[in-house]
Known about the structure:
The chain has 95 residues and is mainly alpha-helical. The chain contains three helices and two strands, in the order αααββ. The chain has helices at 5-14, 21-43, 73-78; strands at residues 83-84, 87-88. It has a two-stranded antiparallel sheet with strand order 1-2. Pfam families: GatC.
Amino acid sequence: MSTDLATLRGLAHLARLEFDAAHEQQMLGDLNNILDFVAQLEAVDTTDVEPLVHLSQEINVLRDDEGRNTVSHQEGLRNAPRKDSDYFRVPKVLD
């Protein structure tokens, strides 16, 4: 399978890409190499291959989601640019 220059220019237009003449020929060669590789992959017989759903056999290896305080209230307010006793001061959002 090979792609011509007109197809490459059409794809470049759709992707909003611009190539000069030297890069256009290089891109055409690269695109044809990619399409040749895909054609090789299509020729592989995969009739007896099970579909791959996950890359790993591990199931639920994540830790339990437990709420905990890692920063105390005072530590959180320590570096606040503006604060009012126990609260952060922020610009008004609504008029």
